[in-house]
């Protein structure tokens, strides 16, 4: 899957991910009304509304982008119905040729981690039948439990040729409380980055490892260091747009080959129609606003990369 991710990035010339994080209040009223008319103001109605919303955004952007990242919490809040919308979204994005990064941020003790890995990336045996549950291509994983929590994911990734993005330095303001603590002379995020490189070393694609890292766009200096600590790991970079990250902050997340990083924006793309810049599209044409926001994001990043050459 890392090879497919890279070939999709090269095909589209767009090292970006659209974050499908559909809060109900981003879904325009005309969609909500239609879903509620059919299913009532119920969890099913909400799940239908977010699915219809996602579908229009994917239809309007899939030819421009390599990958999507649905964040499962946005679906889980609607219970089982929300999870069905998550599944439909994953399947639909696959139909459109997109790589799907399941933002599930799992991580537990070994056997529990193994079950999470099976559910999201692997296959599960039911009697004599092998079944597939969510079937994303990558998952985000929290490494706080150490190798015991990560290894079951890596094992499934090897079997299935799938990948991970492991949290190394997160984009949020308080990420430093633990992640920046100095241990034996170096910040914790560097120790974790080194471990990501080690976990990924024997699960290599053609040029990059299947095991990548998450480093927030909001910490560009740390990104620069971490790029060197894990040269063969793809870095998923959230924090662009709504959290303040800009193209110019991102250049050091990339390697000299122009690869190595993929930048996520969620609210900045899916709720673009609510921004003044894209207000002219109106709520009816929200998906066209998302398309325009994708084009602007790609332009911003490629201009920054070009300038840095
Ligand atoms: O793993 C992530 O994707 C992630 C890690 C991180 O450090 N910061 C972060 O914002 N994210 C996710 O990236 C998305 C950011 O959304 P926006 O701020 O709306 O672009 C959300 O799905 C977050 O859960």
UniProtKB/TrEMBL annotation:
Pfam families to which the protein is assigned, alphabetical: OMPdecase
GO MF term set: orotidine-5'-phosphate decarboxylase activity
Keyword line: Decarboxylase, Lyase, Pyrimidine biosynthesis
EC number: 4.1.1.23
This protein's record includes keyword Nucleus: no
Biological or metabolic pathway of the protein: Pyrimidine metabolism; UMP biosynthesis via de novo pathway; UMP from orotate: step 2/2
Family to which this protein belongs: Belongs to the OMP decarboxylase family. Type 2 subfamily.
The protein's name: Orotidine 5'-phosphate decarboxylase
Organism in which the protein naturally occurs: Maccoyibacter intestinihominis
């Amino acid at each position: 899957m890392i090879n497919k991710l890279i070939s999709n990035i090269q095909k589209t010339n767009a090292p970006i991910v659209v974050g499908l994080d559909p809060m109900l209040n981003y879904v325009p009223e005309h969609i909500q009304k239609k879903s509620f008319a059919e299913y009532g103001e119920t969890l099913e109605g909400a799940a239908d509304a977010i699915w219809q919303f996602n579908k229009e955004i994917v239809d309007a952007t899939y030819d421009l982008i390599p990958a999507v990242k649905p964040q499962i919490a946005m679906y889980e809040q609607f219970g089982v119905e929300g999870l069905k919308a998550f599944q439909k979204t994953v399947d639909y994005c696959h139909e459109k040729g997109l790589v799907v990064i399941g933002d599930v941020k799992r991580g537990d003790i070994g056997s529990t981690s193994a079950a999470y890995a099976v559910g999201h990336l692997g296959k599960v045996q039911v009697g004599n039948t092998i079944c597939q549950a969510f079937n994303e291509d990558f998952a985000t994983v929290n490494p706080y439990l150490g190798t015991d929590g990560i290894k079951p994911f890596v094992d499934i990734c090897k079997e299935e040729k799938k990948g991970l993005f492991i949290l190394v330095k997160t984009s949020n303001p308080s990420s430093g409380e633990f992640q920046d603590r100095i241990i034996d002379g170096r910040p914790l995020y560097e120790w974790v980055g080194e471990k990501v490189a080690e976990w990924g070393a024997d699960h290599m694609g053609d040029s990059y490892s299947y095991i990548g890292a998450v480093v927030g766009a909001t910490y560009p200096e740390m990104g620069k260091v971490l790029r060197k600590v894990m040269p063969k790991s793809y870095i998923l970079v959230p924090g662009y747009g709504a959290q303040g990250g800009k193209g110019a902050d991102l250049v050091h997340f990339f390697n000299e080959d122009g690869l190595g990083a993929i930048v996520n924006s969620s609210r900045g793309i899916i709720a673009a129609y609510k921004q003044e810049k894209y207000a002219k599209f109106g709520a009816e044409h929200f998906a066209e606003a998302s398309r325009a926001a994708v084009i602007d994001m790609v332009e911003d990043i490629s201009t920054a990369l070009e300038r840095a050459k």
